[in-house]
């Protein structure tokens, strides 16, 4: 049941303790790592006189990075044997940095098991893309085997599988069906997701379509009454002319069929699905457990205390923390298997990051409202979870949203076309920010929010203490990314016509409406040669952020380890092929069995 190593760290480390000690020391002492993971934001790439590339990349790295092809750089960072690279070789300091990132990155390899896994029927696969089919097949089999191992080792039978944030319930539907036949509790906060999941349950034959009895004449009359008179055919007009009294036997229910839900019939030896609507604000499952203990809800389940396993594929942000905490909070939860994602949605327990070296500031990302609110929340459910990270070197370890967003990247999977696409999007956005600054749409501010013009004296301006006001643009239509000209015109149109930009609309109209095609072409001529600078930094940021994900996952494992009075075993391992699903690390915890009563 338990892998040979509780964390999939590289073999250069002898023990998990040695790995954790050195990981924490590196992330808190490497200036380069801290700059690339949370210290720079591509929005301000061209807004300083020198530019971010010259300011943040070590001098000896710059010539080599600028002459290296983007895909070649990816290969060198992540795949090639750096001891046998041909000339021109990267600078030795860059090679050492690559080695450090690699040796602190948790292993992501996953041996293919597709041929040994039960296949999903076409009815079960409705609505799933290949990525989701891969995830459901592998994870359903994984948690089934985990439950079997727990029963064999501790003689403790898992009675229910609680899926945190079940969405369309693809995983639960597979587990409730043959060959697994599990009791599933799907906890979901969005009503429309539950309604959609029930429709899919009917298609997959784990639930039945409700039979609707209607008086046909009354039903047709009601439909006619809802149709404009000029759109009724001859039959409808005749029916409307002959009113029919409502029958006492059949009501004229005009709701769409999907609103009638689905019928679930418990059967001995077969799986069963229960949906519970609600948002989990913590790991407390008291309400869920209370509903399960009502024998009227599930008459097939013996009247015994439920023994739960909390499971989730890609629970976003703090929802992963709630799933992990549920093992500690709820006596009924016997095990967890949680695959997290969307690290950018995590809140921050310790507040904004602080850095002791003089080149960094707490948060160089765009100072939008959500970032400030989340950083200031000091949310007890946020990152980090473990006491080890909360108290490390007194101040604890903190990650700002920029670092956590970069941890959601999958640089191992980047293709040349995809890479060029998002490098181009970031380049266009960085140039637009420079235009906004030049034309007075935005201004420069210090990291504490003080406008540059309001402060005199003090340290000189640099990319490490000055940023620009954000303009949250979002995505544009695909045609806007064909050229810088199309992008800027599309951005101006969106910002001056959409109701989402009322506060900025007037100033953008005033300052941007007269920009000419010649001016845009001049900006492109000036900054196009520097696009390679941006792509090099973005690649280094994504490569470095592999450690950010390793740190977040390690923190979750350490949290389970610190509760050794309750947790028997805790480990992390891969459950998906990284090429299909890069967030492929599952955090597992198994509770100590209760002593047998004599």
UniProtKB/TrEMBL annotation:
What InterPro entries does the annotation carry? Methyltranfer_dom (IPR025714), METTL25 (IPR052220)
Q: Where is the Methyltransferase domain?
A: 131-348
Extract the Pfam families matched here: Methyltransf_32
Taxonomic superkingdom: Eukaryota
Put simply, this protein is called Methyltransferase domain-containing protein
Q: Which organism is it from?
A: Xylaria multiplex
């Amino acid at each position: 049941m338990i892998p040979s190593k509780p964390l999939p760290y590289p073999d250069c480390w002898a023990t998990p303790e040695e790995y954790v000690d050195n990981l924490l020391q590196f992330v808190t002492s490497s200036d380069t790592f801290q700059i690339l993971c949370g210290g720079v934001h591509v929005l301000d790439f061209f807004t300083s006189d020198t530019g971010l590339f010259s300011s943040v990349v070590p001098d000896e790295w710059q010539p080599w990075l600028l002459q290296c092809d983007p895909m070649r750089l990816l290969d060198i960072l992540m795949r090639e044997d750096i001891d046998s690279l041909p000339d021109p070789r990267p600078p030795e300091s860059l090679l050492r940095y690559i080695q450090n990132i690699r040796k602190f990155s948790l292993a992501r390899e996953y041996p293919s098991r597709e041929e040994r896994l039960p296949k999903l029927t076409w009815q079960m696969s409705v609505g799933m893309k290949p990525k989701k089919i891969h995830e459901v097949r592998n994870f359903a089999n994984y948690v089934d085997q985990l439950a079997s191992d727990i029963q064999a080792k501790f003689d403790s039978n898992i009675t229910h599988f609680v899926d945190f944030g079940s969405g369309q319930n693809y995983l639960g539907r597979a587990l409730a069906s043959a060959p697994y036949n599990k009791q599933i509790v799907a906890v979901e906060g969005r009503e429309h997701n539950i309604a959609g999941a029930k429709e899919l349950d009917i298609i997959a034959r784990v639930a039945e379509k409700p039979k609707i009895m209607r008086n046909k004449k009354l039903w047709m009359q009601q439909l006619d009454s809802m149709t404009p008179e000029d759109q009724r055919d001859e039959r409808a007009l005749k029916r409307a002319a002959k009113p029919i009294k409502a029958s006492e036997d059949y009501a004229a229910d005009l709701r769409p069929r999907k609103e009638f839900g689905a019928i679930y019939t418990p059967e001995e030896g077969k799986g069963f699905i229960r949906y519970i609507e609600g948002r989990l604000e913590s790991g407390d499952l008291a309400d869920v457990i209370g509903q399960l203990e009502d024998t009227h809800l599930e008459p097939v389940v013996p009247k015994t205390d439920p023994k739960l396993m909390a499971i989730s594929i890609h629970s976003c942000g703090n929802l992963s923390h709630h799933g992990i905490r549920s093992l500690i909070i709820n006596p009924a939860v016997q095990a967890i298997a949680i695959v997290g994602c969307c690290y950018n949605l995590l809140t921050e327990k310790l507040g904004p990051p602080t850095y002791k070296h003089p080149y960094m500031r707490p948060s160089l990302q765009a100072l939008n409202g959500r970032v400030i609110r989340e950083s200031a929340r000091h949310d007890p459910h946020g990152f980090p979870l473990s006491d080890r990270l909360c108290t490390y070197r007194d101040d604890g370890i903190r990650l700002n949203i920029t670092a956590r967003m970069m941890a959601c990247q999958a640089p191992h999977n980047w293709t040349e076309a995809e890479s060029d696409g998002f490098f181009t999007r970031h380049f266009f956005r960085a140039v637009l920010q420079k235009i906004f600054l030049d034309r007075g749409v935005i201004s420069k501010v210090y990291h504490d929010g003080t406008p540059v013009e309001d402060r005199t004296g003090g340290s000189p301006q640099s990319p490490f203490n000055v940023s620009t006001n954000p303009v949250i643009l979002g995505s544009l239509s695909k045609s806007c990314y064909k050229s810088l000209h199309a992008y800027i015109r599309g951005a101006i149109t969106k910002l001056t016509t959409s109701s989402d930009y009322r506060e900025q609309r007037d100033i953008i109209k005033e300052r941007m409406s007269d920009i000419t095609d010649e001016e845009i072409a001049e900006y492109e001529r000036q900054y196009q040669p520097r696009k390679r600078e941006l792509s090099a930094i973005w690649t280094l940021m994504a490569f470095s952020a592999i450690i950010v994900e390793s740190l977040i996952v390690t923190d979750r494992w350490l949290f389970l380890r610190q509760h050794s009075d309750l947790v028997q075993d805790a480990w992390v391992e891969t459950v998906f092929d990284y090429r299909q699903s890069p967030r492929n690390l599952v955090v597992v915890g198994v509770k100590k069995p209760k002593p047998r009563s004599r």
